[in-house]
Design a protein that fits this description.
Chain B: Pfam families: AzlD. The complex is a heterodimer of chains A (235) and B (106). Chain A contains eleven helices and no strands. By secondary structure, chain A is an all-alpha fold. In chain A, helix 2 runs antiparallel to helix 8. Chain B has three domains: 31 residues; 34 residues; 38 residues. The chains are: A mainly alpha (235), B mainly alpha (106).
Chain lengths: 235, 106
């Protein structure tokens, strides 16, 4: 595996992580503000960000804590909301094949929608390795933890939505989606996933549409590809 | 709420977040996966990205209904075209943010 100096690894990782950090910052601040309103001080919300590190689950947990939900209900909801990481972790096993368990124990902690999308795109393009991917994870994590703490300290003083920063993560997802379109099977899978997600969300409330639409669409794309290959080999 | 009770909730949340992140990676990375699984997993990133993105552009967060007039949706179109043309991640983020900011001023 290709490695350069640790400074270069750090620099590459930071260069890949900045759009994630820019998106995490306002969202983390917003979570901090909500936490503070729900009676969770900076230390409490910071501890949650360190131990859980999952944006949407944390927003839901803060709302549930505020509403006096039971521990069981909060933990079960977190499990359901974060189940999509199961798919991402599976996909990451392909570029990280044969890597030692100790590295994976640390690496797994930082898997999020955003870091997954960035790292998979980079792995696919080449010139990427597990250390650079780990820098992306830890940079995003640090930003998230600090942003939530800062939000709970001073967040209410900053006007929301400044400089279009709310579009940082959607913008990054759009670019990463485009970078993932490597051929017809990928384009087909993306369109199918988008359509299925919208229909699924209309029919079934909650977050199940993410995993549901992704699994169905990837299977559809896989079948399309296999049909094409079969036709090529027999015809 | 006591700190002990809060910590217990956090540890539970942490466990159910960490395990789905860890277990597939730990189990699948240590063995030769069948070709069909590798092929299928290759399509997972594009599928997850599209499944995450499309509803955030179309649905209004508060009401949970589809809103075709959302600035997010209309800003996404030129942002997508810019990404297609330049294939630049940083540039797309900046252009998207700039357009979204301008849309907010209108």
């Amino acid at each position: 595996m290709y490695r350069k100096t640790s400074t270069e690894i750090l620099r590459d990782g930071l260069a890949a992580a900045w759009p994630i950090c820019m998106g995490y910052f306002p969202i983390g601040m917003a979570l901090g503000v909500l936490g503070q309103q729900a009676g969770l001080g900076p230390a409490w919300i910071g501890l949650m960000s360190v131990l859980v590190f999952a944006g949407s689950a944390q927003f839901i947990a803060v709302a549930m804590l505020d509403g006096g939900a039971s521990a069981t209900a909060i933990i079960l909801t977190t499990l359901v909301v974060n189940f999509r990481h199961f798919l991402m972790s599976s996909a990451l096993a392909v570029p990280l094949r044969g890597i030692g368990r100790r590295f994976l124990l640390l690496f797994a902690y930082g898997i999020t929608d955003e870091s997954f999308a960035v790292n998979m795109t980079r792995f696919r393009a080449g010139n990427w390795d597990r250390w650079r991917a780990l820098v992306v994870h830890q940079t995003a994590n640090t930003t998230w933890v600090l942003a939530t703490i800062l939000g709970s300290l001073v967040g209410s003083l900053i006007p929301p939505g400044a400089f279009g920063i709310d579009f940082a993560l959607p913008g990054m997802f759009i670019a990463l989606l485009v970078l993932q379109l490597h051929g017809r099977a990928y384009i087909f899978t993306g369109i199918l996933a988008a359509g299925l997600a919208v229909i699924w969300k209309l029919l079934i409330p909650g977050d199940s549409y993410i995993v549901g639409a992704a699994v169905l669409a990837a299977s559809g794309g896989y079948l399309l590809r296999r049909q094409k290959r079969l036709r090529e080999t027999t015809g | 709420m006591s700190f002990k009770h809060y910590l217990l909730i956090l540890l539970g949340m942490g466990a159910v977040t960490y395990l789905p992140r860890l277990l597939p990676l730990l189990l699948l990375s240590q063995r030769q996966m069948p070709d069909w699984l590798v092929d299928w997993l290759e399509l997972i990133p594009v599928a997850i990205l599209a499944a995450l993105l499309a509803p955030t552009l179309l649905f209004d967060g508060q009401s949970g209904h589809i809103d075709l007039l959302r600035p997010q949706l209309w800003v996404a179109v030129p942002t997508f075209l810019f990404a297609l043309k330049t294939r630049s991640l940083g540039g797309t983020v900046m252009v998207g943010m700039g357009l979204y900011w301008l849309a907010g001023l209108l």
